[in-house]
Every structure is written in C-alpha cells, then in structure tokens.
Amino acid sequence: MSQNPENNITKQIKAKAFELGFDACGITPAGVVDRDMVSHFNNWIAQGRHGKMQYMENYRDKRLNPSLILPNGKSVICLAINYHQKNYQPEDAYYKVSQYAAGKDYHTVVKGKLYQLLEFIKIYHPEANSRVFTDSAPILERHLARQAGLGAPGKNSCFILPRKGSYYFLAEIITDLVLDYDTPMEKDFCGKCTRCIDACPTNAIVAPGEIDAKSCISYLTIELKEDIPNEFSGKTRGYIFGCDICQEVCPHNKKFAFPAKEEGFTPLPAIAGWKRKDWNDMDKSSYRKNFIKTNSPIGRASFIKLKSNIDFAKKGSNK
Fold this sequence. Notes:
Elements: H1 9-19, E1 24-29, H2 35-46, H3 60-63, E2 75-82, E3 96-97, H4 106-124, E4 130-133, H5 141-147, E5 152-153, E6 159-160, E7 168-175, H6 195-199, E8 205-207, E9 210-211, H7 217-223, E10 239-241, H8 245-248, H9 251-256, H10 269-273, H11 276-280, H12 284-292, H13 303-317
Helix pairs in contact: 1-4
C-alpha cells in the first residue's frame, strides 16, 4: 500500500536494486511484528527448538520490532538474490556442501551490493540514516520479506519467491526514510504438499513451517560446535556443511529454479573439483588455503569441526 505516492525514490530504489543484481525488492514499514509471529517465535524459543544457538534469545525486543535497530527507523527495504548452483560438485565427491556455500561468503558479496544501493539512496537523500543486513542482525528476515510482498515461507521454513523458488539469500536496509510500502504476501505456496517434510532424513520439520534445529542437518554440521550425536549416524546423507534436501524436492525449485548470475557465488575450485580423497586428506594447510583465504562460508566451521563432519559422514556410510 502506497504511503507516499509522490515519493519517486521508491521506484528508483527498486530499479537500482535490480540493476545491482537483486532478483526481488519490496518495502515494508519498520515496527512491531504481528502478534501471531511474536507468539510463534516466543514459543519456538521456549520449546528449545533453537538448540544451542543462544544468540537467538538475545535482543528479542529488536527482533520483534526492527524499528529499534535504527533510531527513528521507518522503512525496511527487503531484497532477495539467487544463489542456485547446478552440478557444482563432482559426482564422486561423496561429501556434500550446500549450494549456498559453494562460492564466496554471501555476507561479503551481498553486503557489497547493499552498500552500493545505500550510496545510491544518499545521492537523493544525503540526510538519511540507514543500516544494511544480510543474516547479520536480530531481525525476522522471512517475516519482513513476506510483509514486503516478496513471497512466503514454505513448510520447510525456507522462503519461496513466486515463480522463482527458494534458492535465495534475503537482505535488508533499514532506513529512517518514509517510502512507498508494498502489500504483504498472503498466499500459501505449499497447499497440501508435504514433500519437504517427507524427505527430511532427520525429521527436523516437526510441523509446517516449524523446524527443530537440534535435528536439522544444517544445524548439526554448522551451528553445533560439538561432534554430531550418534543418533544421526547414516542420516546426514553425506552432507558435511549445510543441507539442501528439503529444497531439492520442493516443486517450486524443480519447476522454476534457474542458475545464479552473480559471479561471487560461482563454486570455488575446491568445491567444484575436490573428490572424496581430497576431503579425506584435508589438513589444516589445505583447509586454510581453500576455505579461509578464499572467503568461503565453510570457514564458519573450524578445521576440527569440518574434519569431524567428514568422519561422521564416512562412518554413516560404512566407507
């Protein structure tokens, strides 16, 4: 809904966002999120679904009211950018890395674009105060993206863009500018489909739209700093960093997903070339060379954690 019909900067921001390579852009007011979302988030935390991600408990006031992140924040510019990769690992790699981690760290790539968009805004409104984020602030990104009309979360909680799928990074700019606001997305993209729920090997999707992180392969291989519990032996399907199973079976991705155009997400040499033996033989030197110095997201996992994930995957396969 337009709140400021004569404010042409809104159209200019969206045009610039697409020029910079973003695939979707919408705008929503900054403010308290709706009661249902507040209740859902608080219950998720109370039930311990976030596992050992203690940071999810922090700054809850800001997470549930993004206007508190920026003094006098008025608008949230929500954006999405495609990271989809096809056939990005050798068939005999065995050890799998999630698509989003195939290229350079998305925080660096996406924030670079956000800062370019911010500089564009300052040309017209140098007095504006703004902050940029991509999975780097205590905000409910998917909720805001839905309010901005970009799409809606699926039953696997991944955010689905209409006729595009869910292989997208979300990003935001919170600003004190009053902009034209988009209509929230009310559509349910899943209907009766339960393919993601049925496909999850660890039963991490405990209800439509609700994930028990303690059982999620992405959590087990990245966020959990300890060894993966033995109860998941044979269930990680070879994944050693992240997981794409619930997205791979999604009809929206099967029908609409297309390869990413952003060069920063091009698979790094190790991801595109390493075979099973390379992963098994990885030492600290090759880890640093291929995943730290290249600005790979895999650097989020320590050398010890990554080796542990590899050993766990190997043990689960009896190979």
